[in-house]
Each structure stands twice: as structure tokens, then as C-alpha cells.
């Protein structure tokens, strides 16, 4: 795996080993994929302003996330059905996170169960990503199992009243391959995603089982059934972030769902400052995901107020190429790039980062 030294290289190599339907599903964004491109371009519009001769000490990337110590401010976002990328799927991903000392988030729509992942990676800091199902007993069951299995937080996805329109999945008539199951539902709900042959089975699944009538009251309900911290995932507005906090969330994950829900929404990094500003008087942490593909991207997000940054697709590319070793490689690439960035930008630790270290490119527009 050492031959790969950038996330871009991992992505390109993974594209040639993944089966077409899986590759299309992982890669695609909503409709015209403008936001998918903007997630990356918006990072490129930001400029780092390094500080010189600051008396650097050994680079220390460690930080805490919701009270848990992690080796760097990069964690793994939830992505569904990871056994389409590699036979070891979520197990390999979680074990890599454990080895590298970062957070792993398991998707509700995983192809390995809450308990299997907990057993395979007992020391990893694990979060469970939750969708609220029409059937609240299904939802409650998932939450209580995650709590019992030692997960440290619930990342509640709030941006999926219906499933985004992803043309590649429609063209492919996406179905979950026959040999795979949505493992968290074994024994009490369908474990299959099946297309009738007229479009994506994903849309049918979500539109049949997820509750689009949800309000912030359901977040209060969720707050009442678990002691785990709740992270609101999928927030792009300051006022929604405040509503999430008032409903009992301990953290906000600024996210446009990998640009997979609605095209035309802001890049996650563009939405981050508004959310950070809106909740600055509350005792909550703010994270972001979406388009993060270099150590400098991570640094820019930290500078704009993120406590940590999460990556979804890069983990899938690593997974496809080398299972656990591939995800470890992906994390090592981020670690190396982040260390370079800290050193050359003039910071020895996360605490040294100051707001003035990043500006929008327009600050230099007179040139
Ligand atoms: C089976 C339904 O977050 C995505 C994931 C999964 C969403 C629900 C899949 O594809 O964006």
C-alpha cells in the first residue's frame, strides 16, 4: 500500500478495482454533481497564511472529540454497505480506525452489524450513525444496541427526508448484491435492497421506511431514550444548528451528505463558519465532512472552527484497495500531510491554530 501517497492516487486506483455499480454508488453526488465539485473547489479557494519562526516543538496532532482522546482530528464518516468495496467491509474499516486511534462511525445501513463491529474493534472510539425509521421500535432497538455494544455517540442524520436523486444508481437499477445483507436488521426487517428493474432500489427503500414527517421533536424523543451524546449530522444552517442544540444535541456535524442529497447546496466548508458562529455561546462541538482530501483541507477546516474533520469516500477507496491495510494507508496519508501542514504553517498543536491562518482567495484579488 506504501506506493500510494495521496488520496487522489487511492481514488484513481480504487476506481479500477471496484465493481461498476458499487463504484458509481460510492462516487456519485446528487443530479448534476455541482455541489460534489464545489465540496473540493471551496477548499481550493481558501489560502493558508503561515506563521514563520514560531519556535516549533514536536508536532502533536492529538485532540479530544466529545471527551475521547484521538490521535488526530480526522475521523471516519459513515458510509453504507461497505462489503461492496471489500469482503471485510466495516470490520476492516473499524479495525484500521482502532489501530490509527481515530473515530469510526458505523452506518445504520451497514453490511456488518453493530455487535460484529464492536467485537472486532473493541478499543476503537465508535459512533453509530442513525436514521429514524417510520417504526420507532426499529429505531429504539438500534440505539439501545449501540449503547449496549459500547458506542460512544449517536450521529443522527437529519438531511434525508427522502433519498437524493443519483442518476448513476437509477441507470444501474441499483440493488444490494445477493450475497450481502443490511446486517443491523437481521431477523426483524428486510435486509435487502432490491430494484424492480425500474430505477434505484435505494430510493424505494428510503422512501418506504424513513419518516419524512420528522421534526425536532423526534430529536427530543431520541434524547429521552439514550444517555449517549447525539450529534446532528447534515446541518448547513446556523439556525438549524441552534435548533439541534436546543433539542439536546451535543455536537453538530456540518455536512451536505457528500453532496449526495441536494445539488446546489453549499460546500460543507462554506457552511462551516455560519454554524460555528451560531453556536459559539453553547457548549457544543462542531465538525465537518465533505470534500476533504488533503491534510491542508483538514487544517483549513480546523482554522474555521471545526473540532474535527470526517472522511467517508477516502476510507472506501482504501478499503477497496487493501481492506484494513488500505484504510490504514489512507489515514497515514492524512497524518503525514497534516504534520507537514502544521510544521510549515507554524503550529505545533491544534491549540496553536488561530483564525487568521486561513483567508478566502478574494483577500488577494487585487493582484
Ligand atoms: C439503503 C438506503 O447515506 C448514502 C447513504 C445511505 C443512505 C440510505 C441508503 O448513500 O448517501
Automatic annotation (TrEMBL):
One of its GO terms (molecular function) is FMN binding. Coiled coil: none annotated. Keywords: Flavoprotein, FMN, Oxidoreductase. Glyoxylate binds at residues 25, 131, 166, 257, 260. FMN binds at residues 78-80, 107, 129, 157, 233, 255, 312-313. Its cofactor is FMN. Its EC number is 1.1.3.15. InterPro entries: Aldolase_TIM, Alpha-hydoxy_acid_DH_FMN, FMN-dep_DH, FMN_HAD, FMN_hydac_DH_AS. It catalyses: a (2S)-2-hydroxycarboxylate + O2 = a 2-oxocarboxylate + H2O2; 2-hydroxyoctanoate + O2 = 2-oxooctanoate + H2O2. The active site is at residue 257. GO terms for cellular component: peroxisomal matrix. Residues 1-363 form the FMN hydroxy acid dehydrogenase domain. GO terms for biological process: fatty acid alpha-oxidation. Belongs to the FMN-dependent alpha-hydroxy acid dehydrogenase family. PANTHER family: 2-HYDROXYACID OXIDASE 2 (PTHR10578:SF149), S -2-HYDROXY-ACID OXIDASE-RELATED (PTHR10578). This is (S)-2-hydroxy-acid oxidase. It comes from Papilio machaon (Old World swallowtail butterfly). The lineage of its organism: Eukaryota, Metazoa, Ecdysozoa, Arthropoda, Hexapoda.
Amino acid at each position: 500500500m506504501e506506493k500510494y501517497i495521496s488520496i487522489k492516487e487511492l481514488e484513481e486506483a480504487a476506481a479500477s478495482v471496484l465493481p461498476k455499480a458499487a463504484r458509481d454508488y460510492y462516487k456519485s453526488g446528487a443530479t448534476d454533481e455541482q455541489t460534489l465539485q464545489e465540496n473540493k473547489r471551496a477548499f481550493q479557494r481558501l489560502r493558508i497564511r503561515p506563521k514563520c519562526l514560531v519556535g516549533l516543538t514536536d508536532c502533536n496532532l492529538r485532540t479530544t472529540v466529545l471527551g475521547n482522546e484521538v490521535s488526530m482530528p480526522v475521523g471516519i464518516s459513515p458510509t453504507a454497505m461497505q462489503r461492496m468495496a471489500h469482503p471485510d467491509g466495516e470490520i476492516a474499516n473499524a479495525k484500521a480506525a482502532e489501530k490509527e486511534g481515530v473515530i469510526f462511525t458505523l452506518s445504520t445501513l451497514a453490511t456488518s452489524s453493530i455487535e460484529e463491529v464492536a467485537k472486532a474493534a473493541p478499543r476503537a472510539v465508535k459512533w453509530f450513525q442513525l436514521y429514524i425509521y417510520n417504526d420507532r421500535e426499529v429505531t429504539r432497538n438500534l440505539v439501545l444496541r449501540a449503547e449496549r455494544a459500547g458506542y460512544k455517540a449517536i450521529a443522527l442524520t437529519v438531511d434525508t427526508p427522502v433519498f437524493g436523486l443519483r442518476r448513476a444508481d437509477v441507470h444501474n437499477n441499483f440493488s444490494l448484491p445477493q450475497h450481502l445483507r443490511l446486517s443491523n436488521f437481521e431477523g426483524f426487517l428486510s435486509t435487502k435492497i432490491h430494484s424492480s428493474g425500474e430505477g434505484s432500489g435505494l430510493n424505494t427503500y428510503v422512501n418506504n421506511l424513513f419518516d419524512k414527517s420528522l421534526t425536532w421533536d423526534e430529536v427530543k424523543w431520541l434524547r429521552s431514550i439514550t444517555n449517549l451524546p447525539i450529534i446532528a449530522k447534515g446541518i448547513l444552517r446556523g439556525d438549524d444548528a441552534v435548533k439541534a442544540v436546543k433539542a439536546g444535541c451535543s455536537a453538530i456535524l456540518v455536512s451536505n451528505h457528500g453532496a449526495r442529497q441536494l445539488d446546489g447546496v453549499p460546500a460543507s466548508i462554506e457552511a462551516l463558519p455560519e454554524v460555528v458562529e451560531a453556536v459559539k455561546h453553547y457548549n457544543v462541538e462542531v465538525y465537518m465532512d465533505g470534500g476533504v482530501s488533503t491534510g491542508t483541507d483538514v487544517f483549513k477546516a480546523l482554522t474555521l472552527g471545526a473540532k474535527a474533520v470526517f472522511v467517508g469516500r477516502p476510507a472506501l477507496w482504501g478499503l477497496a484497495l487493501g481492506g484494513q491495510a488500505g484504510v490504514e494507508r489512507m489515514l497515514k496519508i492524512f497524518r503525514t500531510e497534516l504534520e507537514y501542514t502544521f510544521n510549515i504553517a507554524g503550529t505545533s498543536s491544534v491549540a496553536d491554530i488561530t483564525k487568521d491562518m486561513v483567508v478566502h482567495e478574494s483577500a488577494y484579488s487585487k493582484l
